[in-house]
Amino acid sequence: MSNQDTDLPASPNAAINIGLCGFGTVGQGVWKHLKRDRAELAARLGVPLRIAAISVRDPQRPRAIKLPAKLLRADPLEVATDPAIPIVCELMGGTALARRVTLAALKAGKIVVSANKALICEHGAEIFATARKHGGHFFFEASVAGGVPIIKALREGLIANRFPQIYGILNGTCNYILTQMEERDAPYAEILAEAKALGYAEADEALDVQGWDAAHKAAVLAWLAHGLWVPPSRMIVEGIERVTPADFKNAAQLGYSIKLLAIITRDFSTEELSVKVHPALLPDSDVIASVNGVYNAISVTGDIVGTTLYIGKGAGQDATASAVISDIADAAALLRSGRCARLPSELAPLPSAAAAPSTVKLAPLERIEGRYYLRLTVRDEPGVLARIASVMARHAVSISSVLQTPSEFPDMASLVLTTHQANERAMRDTLRQLARLSIVSGAPLLLRICEFKT
């Protein structure tokens, strides 16, 4: 078989070998773009890149992309431990097998490139420790925000900064659904079905719409910026399933849009860190409020640089493949010259976070403060607002504004309250008590109002 048939560089002995573990959407994108741009990449890097092996579940299965049979492997561990392959791309998804493959490659002193935010969130500490111990390297630009180079920005361009505030849209599926609900005045279930048909949402949408995908990405950013691994179980994580078209109308009347946000804040005076993922009312004046569709957007506030903003496609084959190939290029530079543009990710989080495990602690609920939007379905009768206000006052929650609109249910009304500054503990206690009132029907909906300082 000729080099042209295998689509490999003409000088394979000079090439850097790459192994792809997984050949789904992202793996196919990496193959496509490395093939298309191989000459230009070789010129930029000073060395050609060669895909030497690809692990797939079934090497015999017909594929839309024709692959040379000699490249295919059934066992990803064979690729991970092949001494002729110094760069291993873990693109399988999941965590169990992906962890085994990643650790095996790192123990062999290899460079691993991964787009797997769940793997990093659950096993990041073990992965980085293994890389340190065995001289491997772990690059993960594609794990957060797809084609938006947020990890590279934090680790390189903003390395001199400490980060009191990072927030933004980290899940394109949710942003697409919320955008369509707002623009078309359409219910959640209808837009979700359309998103699945278009390929923007998975058949099992729970990871996206319940906030867990964004929480995994937030965990990665929190570790990078602050050196503390925060599992999603210790974050505030809420999804978008209960947001209705009426909430968008109410928000617009108040001057807000609704976005699913990941929010990482650190008070350097108390060394308290907060990591949250939830739908939020964002002022129309905030640039991120106008970021729609499948796009991601992240605002990063540094103590030296001020606020910087990053916007781009957060998912999809091309965007994620772009980030993976960026890591491959850094890996190639490291292999060729012993150094690369970024700091090796396995050494430590950012300098500002180096002492974090011993000094930074998660903020308790009573220290997480903000304003809130509360929607209740209540009986349409005198004295209802007074009873609700009484419950809120008991927990030191002060009402800022009130909107009342007709409910779809007979003899009921939709009551929307916004609050002055309160805290998460007080709001949880308030919701619990309000839900017990006979005048309240169904579970109240609580959304945070986020007005960020820039």
UniProtKB/TrEMBL annotation:
Molecular function GO terms recorded: homoserine dehydrogenase activity; NADP binding
Q: Where does L-homoserine bind?
A: E202
What EC number(s) has UniProt assigned to this enzyme?
1.1.1.3
Instruction: Name the keywords, alphabetized.
Output: Amino-acid biosynthesis, Methionine biosynthesis, NADP, Oxidoreductase, Threonine biosynthesis
Q: Where's the active site on this chain?
A: K217
**Highest taxon, organism lineage:** Bacteria
Family matches, as Pfam families: ACT (PF01842), Homoserine_dh (PF00742), NAD_binding_3 (PF03447)
Supply the CDD domains for this chain.
ACT_HSDH-Hom
Q: Where is the ACT domain?
A: 373-448
Metabolic or biological pathway, per its Swiss-Prot or TrEMBL entry: Amino-acid biosynthesis; L-threonine biosynthesis; L-threonine from L-aspartate: step 3/5; Amino-acid biosynthesis; L-methionine biosynthesis via de novo pathway; L-homoserine from L-aspartate: step 3/3
Residues holding NADPH: K117
GO biological processes: methionine biosynthetic process; threonine biosynthetic process
User: What Gene3D superfamilies is this protein classified in?
Assistant: 3.30.70.260, Dihydrodipicolinate Reductase, domain 2 (3.30.360.10), NAD(P)-binding Rossmann-like Domain (3.40.50.720)
Signal sequence, renumbered to the chain:
none
| Oxidoreductase found in the keyword field | yes
For this chain, the family text in UniProt reads: Belongs to the homoserine dehydrogenase family.
Q: Which NCBIfam families match?
A: PRK06349.1
Q: Which protein are we looking at?
A: Homoserine dehydrogenase
